[in-house]
């Protein structure tokens, strides 16, 4: 019965937090729309927002450590150290997953920066600047190249091999589009073709590729939602069992059959998530 009480308290607390947060946001919007235009908040809302911002700042870059308090709570409810051991083991795995997600976002940000670079260089060329000066302005304005910016800027400023510098920068994650910029530059220098026209077409191609990727991601959002729901079903089942007084944590953590079921279920859950995620990622890579 204590597990049912704890589960009910957790659910009630989460529901109350969602209701209070939603109402506070609704009141804030109503004051701005129908009031005198000011966004004055009560003292408790300001303290809540201040605490939330401090918590976000504290957890920035360290969100994987949230596994430990969750594991501690499960260990207290289940009266076992196994959840805490599992939580400690999950920290590096969650850190690795978060790092991969951040790297993917950084690659997408850099790819968008290459498109902005093409547009900036085209604008400078049509304004009458020399190609080297236009590239310097574009590189400095977008800041997309990171460590490779120094080499490209030096080549553009001192008349070096700009296509070679751009080709080397294109090896960085997310900067694949710079290979097209290097090709346009080489054709313009060797064949006398218009650099602005080539970069304009390259920018259009990169934007079309981004739109295709976004449309594909939107179509696969339902598949990712299904994966998330399937991952949460065991947790929902345990919560329902605790609410009914079945003591699932005690059965899973304090009996041989429960431990076997817990290990097998965890392995099957991990295998299912990996399999489903691989299928969806394969669809994204098409």
Automatic annotation (TrEMBL):
<dbReference type="InterPro" id="IPR018076">
    <property type="entry name" value="T2SS_GspF_dom"/>
</dbReference>
<keyword id="KW-0812">Transmembrane</keyword>
<protein>
    <submittedName>
        <fullName>Tight adherence protein B</fullName>
    </submittedName>
</protein>
<keyword id="KW-1003">Cell membrane</keyword>
<keyword id="KW-0472">Membrane</keyword>
<dbReference type="Pfam" id="PF00482">
    <property type="entry name" value="T2SSF"/>
</dbReference>
<feature type="domain" description="Type II secretion system protein GspF">
    <location>
        <begin position="123"/>
        <end position="239"/>
    </location>
</feature>
<keyword id="KW-1133">Transmembrane helix</keyword>
<dbReference type="GO" id="GO:0005886">
    <property type="term" value="C:plasma membrane"/>
</dbReference>
<feature type="transmembrane region" description="Helical">
    <location>
        <begin position="220"/>
        <end position="245"/>
    </location>
</feature>
<feature type="transmembrane region" description="Helical">
    <location>
        <begin position="251"/>
        <end position="276"/>
    </location>
</feature>
